[in-house]
Design brief:
The protein is α+β, with helices and mostly antiparallel strands. 51% of the residues lie in helices and 12% in strands. The longest helix has 50 residues, at 308-357.
Length: 1062
């Protein structure tokens, strides 16, 4: 039973998720066929006979009585009669002057037509174009107007509805209206629910589309196979109740756990995730619920045998639920899979572009982008422009579909094609009796044709005419047997290409780690990855003899990429992992590390191998010989060896010899189990290992109503504990409130001019509106994210210093800005009239970066944040072991007055650099930028109610959540802990701003805790002095006049023990 209700749906979901394009296209094609069948049965059959608009009258010889022929069979009786045709004409336009028509029989009785023309043939030789006295053109329009046909259908429905309302009870009408309101509310609820999950539009639209297809298939199954006819009235009344009662909860219940699973393991294959979720969480509950409801409908159909309409609808409803459940596990699973896979690729490409723009090498950017996709931010979200385009596309498709049904959208032509039989016959006879004065001996048969319309030709009608002509021509061309087959082949090729590309991208976005795990799990006892062996066949210019000598020595010493055993199960031949990957290197063999193979060929031979580019074929001892001899630079090891881990090993051996440091031959400086692919070309050069730093966590700290666990990388004891105490006190008061006051990174180049006058002219131009506008345009053209805010200038002699302040998205952005500044200065020299300008330095220390400076304190740099919190007075005493008055006094004396006496620039705090630098290291920021980022003013004051208000103002926090050290997996993981890894999907810069707020809030907690410890220590000392037994000339009193008992003394002693770090 479990297999039936969980494994089968899971297998279906896996197949459909693996081949989403196949499933979606197949479903749409079958739904289109079913739709056409239902359309013909429910729409065409109930449509008024607007195609048979011809009305026939017969007048016998020597008589004036006209007989209306109600059927075409009556025409056979009068086949020998003379036959004439009456063409009703109508003129439409924006003028009162209509063209004159020869032999026009005017109709003065009604305004439906302007007159009639008698012709001998049904075609009627009516002119295509007419002109009025002013020369305005009127053109004869085609009567094949399908839009008018559907207008008639809608009109007939309205008439039927009116009759139904008249005959219905008021309570029934209210119930049906409530059902329709509830149905639309259900649609809104679906979009809202999917929005909470993370999809703004497409998953909700896909849910509705899936249910619509289920309805079409179920209706076709009911009518065509079961031969059960459900009337249109039953559908219009019953479907709103069905939608509002059943709703789309099963779609939401299916989607939510899938998205959650994608978030928790974004590197796992999408099809596997969907299948696992269906098997473990959604299949049995959904099937159970749908079966119960379907059974209820079946039982209801058995109990209402005397009500055929209700019985048939209950059967249809049960089938709809069954088909909809099937489509949930197939069609909707395909939509969800396709959406996830497309956005994975999209975000990977976008992330790679951002990293490359920030100066990260292409290889590292690609490696980071492949495994740094956060599904919660990427798979389902869309920005508003994309969402608007999608909605426009959907409605455009519907509009095109409707356009194909008719020939005119620019004017109301429905009345033009009203069946002529609806008009009174005596009015027709009165209109022609004066023209037809004599009836032939064999009688006269009069056929009244559909109304012909002459419309005034305007620019809009002409445009519409040619658009319709194009569509008509295309339709005619497509119907050609040869062309239709060709288009069908093209469509098949297009679908095949899309399927191929999707499969390729799906394999591309699979994590390399998952492939390695697959390889290892397929052969548990394999030693793949434990030995370092040769991976590739070399193509060198050296002799075959050299190759043979090389091969044997290399087998035990040169790392080989993970290659699948062709004999292993479930592994395809040729499936390998990139030879440069070091993410899963478990260990190096002892022989490799110690270089036990002492067989070294002559240096001359090794030099020839180096020149041939085959150093990777040498053992480590030989590579070491080349390095020591100065033939192979240390920085070139990665490139020459083609394996970053092996390059680290050889470099350690080289430095151990150069510096006489055998410590590098041990594991005391770790180097194993590290992803050097992300380091090389991005974070460090000449790598010999890495230094682990303990990482603690402070928090949770409530920041703007949301809790954050803050990673702290430090070797200073008590720092995390002290911050935790501050977090506890702040949370008790309701958390931290933050405000972003500015956001802009700076770069300040120095340029020089021939003389002071030219430098002054450049300054005036740059400060002007024209200069700012032109420089912004030049700067903004270099990046999708960097946007120049303004330029500030300063002049010193004939040198001009220009401070560019720009936004940089979620990157810290120094490389991004430097590129924009360089281009702006080039444009300034070549295009803006300052060709005598000489760029002295791209960074003229007017930025100013990694140095204490007043301009950063005053103007700000990076993110400017103010964080504040209110601490209840009892929390100050119970948690912080101090009191409000002591804290306020200490803050003024230490952080304000003391810092001012020391001439501090931005240093009006206790130890802001402590927490900031620890978080910088944990999250991959540039630790050197703590110089200006630690600019902080801590303020405390006592509120009227006795509580403490503390705030920190930090005008120059320089952070980013992409690029730099954030590409390293441990640092990226800490950003993921905060929920701000990588670029924000819809609001560039939001993640970096949130990180700055987290840092300022953590600094606030640390400042509060340290100052409390300092204040507690001061109070203890004052208290001890006050309680000396020996008489004192002047009795010391506790600060702020606080009277202390023995309990207070113990509390303060405890507070003074908390790591005082000043």
């Amino acid at each position: 039973m479990t297999y039936l209700f969980s494994d089968i749906p899971a297998s279906l979901a896996r197949v459909c998720a693996n081949k989403p394009i196949h499933i979606i296209i197949s479903t749409v094609l079958f739904a289109a066929v079913a739709y056409l069948g239902i359309f013909e049965q429910y729409i065409t059959n109930d449509l008024p006979a607007t195609d048979s608009q011809e009305v026939n009258f017969y007048c016998p010889p020597s008589s004036s009585n006209w007989e209306l022929l109600k059927s075409t069979s009556d025409l056979d009786k009068y086949s020998n009669a003379e036959h004439v045709y009456l063409n009703p004409l109508k003129f439409k336009g924006f003028t009162d002057s209509f063209p004159e028509f020869p032999n026009l029989i005017e109709d003065l009785e009604t305004s439906d037509v302007d007159g009639y023309v008698l012709t001998d043939t049904a075609v009627g030789n009516l002119p295509e174009v007419l002109k009025n006295e002013q020369g305005q053109v009127f053109k004869l329009r085609s009567s094949n107007n399908k839009l008018g046909k559907y207008y008639e259908y809608c009109k007939s429905i309205i008439v039927k509805l009116q009759h139904a309302i008249v005959g219905a009870e008021p309570l029934d009408i209210v119930m049906v209206l409530c059902a329709y309101v509830a149905m639309w509310f259900t649609f809104i609820q679906l979009f809202y629910g999917m929005r909470k999950i993370g999809s703004n539009f497409w998953l909700a639209f896909g849910s509705i589309l899936s249910s619509c297809f289920a309805f079409i298939f179920a209706l076709a199954l009911t009518t065509e196979i079961l031969k059960i006819k459900v009337s249109l009235v039953s559908l219009t009344e019953g479907l709103p109740f069905l939608v509002s009662t059943i709703g789309f909860k099963h779609k939401l219940a299916f989607t939510a756990p899938v998205v959650k699973a994608l978030n928790s393991d974004p590197h796992k294959d999408v099809a596997d995730i969907i299948s696992d979720v269906v098997r473990s969480r959604t299949a049995i509950p959904l099937i159970r619920d749908q079966l119960i409801i379907s059974a209820s409908f079946v039982i209801c159909s058995l109990l209402v045998q005397n009500l055929p309409g209700l019985k048939n609808f209950c059967i249809l409803a049960s089938i709809i639920l069954a088909v909809d459940l099937f489509f949930t596990f197939t069609f909707f699973a395909s939509i969800l899979s396709l959406k996830a896979q497309i956005f994975k690729v999209h975000r990977e490409i976008e992330l790679k572009e951002i990293l490359e723009e920030d100066g990260i090498s292409s290889n590292v950017a690609n490696n980071v982008a492949e495994v740094s996709i956060d599904i919660s931010q990427t798979v389902l979200k869309n920005n508003r422009r994309i969402l608007g385009f999608k909605i426009f596309t959907v409605f455009g498709f519907l509009g095109l579909h409707l356009f194909a049904l008719g020939t005119s959208w620019l004017y109301d032509d429905s009345a033009d094609f009203e069946p002529i039989a609806n008009r009174d016959s005596h009015l027709l006879i009165a209109a022609v009796k004066n023209t037809i004065t004599q009836i032939p001996n064999n009688g006269l048969l009069l056929t009244v044709l559909p109304i012909k319309v002459y419309s005034q030709a305007t620019a809009l009608t002409e445009l519409e005419y040619y658009v319709v002509l194009i569509f008509t021509t295309l339709t005619t061309a497509i119907s050609d047997p040869l062309i239709s087959k060709f288009l069908f082949m093209i469509a098949g090729i297009s679908v095949s290409i899309n399927i191929y590309l999707l499969n390729a991208t799906r394999f591309h976005i699979r994590s390399p780690v998952s492939i390695i795990n697959q390889l290892n799990s397929s052969k548990p006892n394999s030693s793949v990855g434990n030995d370092i062996v040769n991976a590739s066949t070399t193509t060198s210019k050296s002799s075959k003899k050299t190759k043979k000598k090389t091969k044997k020595r290399a087998e035990n010493n040169i790392q080989k990429p993970l290659v699948a055993d062709v004999n292993a199960d479930n592994i395809k031949e040729g499936q390998i992992v990139d030879e440069n990957s070091t993410a899963d290197d478990d260990s190096l063999s002892e022989n490799t590390l110690s270089s036990s193979d002492d067989t070294v060929r002559p240096l001359e031979e090794l030099t020839e191998i180096l020149k041939a580019g085959n150093v990777k074929d040498c053992n480590n001892s030989e590579v070491l010989e080349l390095v020591i001899a100065g033939k192979l630079p240390l920085y070139a090891l990665e490139k020459q060896l083609g394996n970053k881990m092996r390059a680290v090993v050889v470099r350690r051996q080289s430095i151990a010899k150069f510096a006489n440091a055998p410590v590098l031959l041990s594991d005391r400086l770790p180097f194993k189990d590290y992803d050097y692919d992300r380091v090389f070309g991005a974070c460090c050069e000449n790598v010999i290992g890495y230094v682990p730093i303990p990482v603690g966590v402070a928090g949770p700290l409530v920041i703007d109503g949301k809790p954050f666990h803050i990673p702290v990388a430090t070797t200073e004891g008590c720092l995390v504990a002290s911050a935790m105490r501050g977090c506890k006190a702040i949370n008790a008061g309701g958390g931290v409130e933050t405000v972003l006051t500015a956001d802009g990174m700076t770069r300040g180049p120095c340029v020089q001019f021939p003389n002071l006058k030219r430098a002054g002219k450049a300054k005036v131009w740059l400060d002007s509106e024209e200069g700012q506008k032109k420089m912004k345009a030049a700067f903004n053209s270099t990046s999708r994210f960097a946007r120049l805010q303004h330029i500030k200038t300063a002049i010193a002699g004939d040198s001009l210093y220009i401070r560019f302040k720009t936004t940089t998205g979620d990157a810290m952005g120094m490389n991004m800005i430097s590129k924009g500044v360089e281009h702006s200065l080039k444009c300034m020299a070549e295009e803006f009239g300052f060709d005598d300008m000489n760029v002295i330095s791209l960074s003229g220390n007017y930025c100013i970066d990694k140095k204490a400076a007043a301009i950063n304190w005053i103007e700000g740099r990076g993110k400017s944040i103010v964080a504040s919190a209110d601490i209840p007075s009892d929390i100050v005493e119970k948690v912080l072991k101090s009191n409000v008055d002591a804290l306020v006094e200490l803050n003024v004396s230490k952080n304000l007055v003391g810092s001012a006496l020391a001439g501090a620039i931005g240093g009006f705090n206790a130890h802001a650099a402590n927490l900031l630098t620890a978080i910088y290291i944990a999250t991959g920021q540039d630790p050197a930028q703590n110089v200006e980022s630690s600019n902080c003013m801590t303020l405390m004051k006592k509120l009227p109610n006795g509580d403490l208000r503390i705030s920190v103002s930090m005008p120059s926090i320089e952070v980013g959540t992409i690029g730099g050290g954030t590409v390293l997996e441990p640092q990226g993981a800490m950003l993921e802990l905060l929920g701000i890894r990588g670029p924000h999907p819809t609001e560039p810069g939001a993640n970096a701003r949130q990180l700055a707020k987290v840092i300022a809030s953590a600094v606030l907690a640390s400042e509060l805790s340290l100052c409390s410890a300092l204040a507690a220590g001061h109070l203890v000392q004052s208290h001890m002095q006050h309680n000396r037994k020996a008489p004192a000339p002047l009795e010391a009193v506790p600060s702020a006049g606080v009277s202390l008992n023995s309990a207070d003394v113990e509390r303060l002693k405890e507070g003074s023990k908390i790591c005082i770090r000043s």
